[in-house]
Design brief:
about 15% helix, mainly beta, globular
Length: about 120
C-alpha cells in the first residue's frame, strides 16, 4: 500500500513539474487554417506566446490547440498593463479590461481613489 502511494505521488510530481513549458516568441508562430502553429510543427500550438517590441514585452497570450484560450495581455511601452482579455476556444469571454497608464513624469496620472482599469 505504501509503495503504491509513493509511486502515485512520484508520478503526480513528475507530471506537475514537466507540464509547464517555456513561452514561445509569438512572432515565430505560423497562422494557417485559422489556427496558430509553432514553426516547423504540423500540430496546432498549445502554450504561452510572448511578443516583444524593442526588448520590452508587448503582448502575451495563451493558446490551446492553436486557438486563443486563456488570458491575453497587452502592455504600454512603460511596462504597465494596458489591456487584458480572456478567451475560451478562440472566442473572447467576458469584458475587456483597459488599464490607464500612470506616468511618473506627471502626465495622465489617474486619481488614486479611482480604479486603474475600466471594463469594456
Amino acid at each position: 500500500m505504501k509503495q503504491t502511494l509513493l509511486i502515485i505521488t512520484a508520478v503526480m510530481l513528475v507530471v506537475g513539474f514537466t507540464s509547464g513549458q517555456e513561452p514561445i516568441d509569438g512572432s515565430t508562430l505560423v497562422y494557417k487554417d485559422d489556427l496558430m502553429y509553432a514553426p516547423g510543427s504540423d500540430k496546432p500550438y498549445s502554450g504561452v506566446a510572448v511578443w516583444y517590441n524593442s526588448g520590452q514585452k508587448e503582448y502575451e497570450s495563451t493558446y490551446k490547440d492553436g486557438e486563443l484560450d486563456g488570458v491575453w495581455t497587452q502592455w504600454y511601452e512603460n511596462g504597465q498593463k494596458e489591456y487584458e482579455r480572456t478567451y475560451k476556444d478562440g472566442e473572447q469571454i467576458g469584458e475587456t479590461k483597459r488599464y490607464e497608464s500612470i506616468n511618473t513624469d506627471g502626465d495622465d496620472i489617474v486619481d488614486e481613489d479611482e480604479p486603474r482599469h475600466k471594463e469594456y
